[in-house]
Specification:
The protein has ten helices and no strands. The protein is mainly alpha-helical and about 240 residues long. The chain has one domain. The longest helix is centred in the C-terminal third of the chain and has 25 residues. This is Probable membrane transporter protein.
Length: about 240
């Protein structure tokens, strides 16, 4: 196995293992591994492929717990965000935006840890978060933290949060894939490599579900905030 396939396998396995447990962070965990051996645009294509494969599995299993109304509200703004994000991925230099997203995520986590904090009414700006989530999903495949903020604010329990995140990220992936194909960022060579990694990806989904069933809601919420904080740091220090 060459270095590219090895790091692709490790990144996808680790990312989607975590994704299956908490409902997001697949791209945030996988991206640093992939960027060691490939450009950002190629890494986004690989991650998008595996999101596309996992989406029907996640949605089928978690359908009854998905907040469908919230999902519909995020759909339109996310679509326009994805379009703008992929354009920036092709023609822009989005490093500054990645660092800005990292700082925003860190500040959000720190605010969430405050024992006494003002109530955040994010419901009025769902469209803004949907657009920004789609935008960063288009550029880096890392719009998850922004969706976490709005979905966590709008849902009442971990089960609904996790299921709605699966639905939201799956919807964004369905929007992103056609754009990547049309622009030529996704190639058949990447598809062949993805097929090689597929057994490890399936194993990650299986093991992630097993681990999720053994964790309680309080611990999962702590894991969510911890991974958000780490992802924010990774986005800030990445080059």
């Amino acid at each position: 196995m060459d270095t590219t396939l090895l790091l692709l396998t490790i990144g996808i396995f680790t990312g989607f293992f975590i994704q299956t447990i908490i409902g997001f962070a697949g791209a945030l965990i996988a991206l640093p591994f992939l960027l060691c051996v490939m450009p950002l645009s190629e890494a986004v294509s690989y991650i998008s492929m595996f999101y596309l494969i996992s989406t029907p599995i996640y949605v089928y299993k978690e359908w009854k717990d998905i907040d469908k109304i919230l999902l519909k509200k995020l759909a339109i703004s996310s679509f326009f965000g994805v379009l703008v994000g992929v354009i920036v991925l092709i023609y822009g230099k989005p490093l500054f935006l990645k660092k800005a997203l990292g700082v925003f995520v860190i500040l959000f986590v720190l605010n969430s840890l405050r024992t006494k904090k003002p109530t955040m009414n994010l419901g009025k700006i769902k469209g803004v978060f949907g657009f920004l989530g789609g935008f960063f999903s288009g550029v880096f495949s890392t719009g998850g933290p922004l969706y976490v903020m709005i979905v966590q604010n709008e849902t009442t329990d971990v089960k609904t949060f996790r299921a709605t995140m699966f639905g939201t990220l799956g919807l964004v992936t369905l929007m992103r894939i056609p754009v990547l194909v049309v622009t030529g960022l996704m190639t058949m060579h990447q598809v062949y490599n993805a097929i090689y990694v597929l057994p490890f990806f399936i194993l990650a989904l299986f093991l992630g579900k097993k681990v999720y069933l053994k964790l309680d809601d309080v611990l999962i919420k702590k894991i969510i905030l911890g991974l958000l904080f780490l992802s924010g740091i990774m986005l800030v220090v990445s080059k």
